[in-house]
Amino acid sequence: MLRDLLENGNIIEIIATFIALALIVASLLCLVFIIFGGITFILSAGNEDRIKKAVNTIRYAIIGLFVTFIAFFFVSWISRLLNIPFELRFSTIVQLMQEIFAALQG
């Protein structure tokens, strides 16, 4: 899908695909930081500074994910306002994730 898109797609489709990839990366990073914050919280052993650091890590990861999705919806809204044919569907994101995982498996 990506190779075909880069060879035959127009600029709007390429931008939409890269935005979808950015959403995937942001979601995965959010998950990693939430897990890291949770492990830090569990291993804090009652240390107030470590607990505060872990809670802040989880909080900022979730805030970052919300900011990412708000930016995506803002870009979609602006494109509709300016009549730019920007379409990014959930099925496109799922298809990209399947393609990425298939490439990672071999």
Notable traits:
106 residues, single chain, 84% helix, mainly alpha
Overview of the structural elements:
By secondary structure, this protein is mostly helical. It has one domain. Helices cover 84% and strands 0% of the residues. The chain contains 4 helices and no strands. α2 runs antiparallel to α3 and α2 (11-42) crosses α4. The longest helix is centred in the middle third of the chain and has 34 residues, at 48-81.
Mean pLDDT: 86
Q: How is the biggest beta sheet arranged?
A: none
Q: What's the total number of strands?
A: 0
Count of alpha/pi helices: 4
- Radius of gyration in whole Å, from Cα? 18 Å
**Strand and helix order:** HHHH
Q: Pick out the low-confidence regions.
A: none
Structural class: mainly alpha
> In whole angstroms, how far apart are the ends?
16 Å
Compose a concise summary of this entry.
With 106 residues, the chain is mostly helical. It contains 4 helices and no strands. The radius of gyration is 18 Å and the shape is elongated.
Topology:
Elements: H1 2-8, H2 11-42, H3 48-81, H4 90-105
Helix pairs in contact: 2-3, 2-4
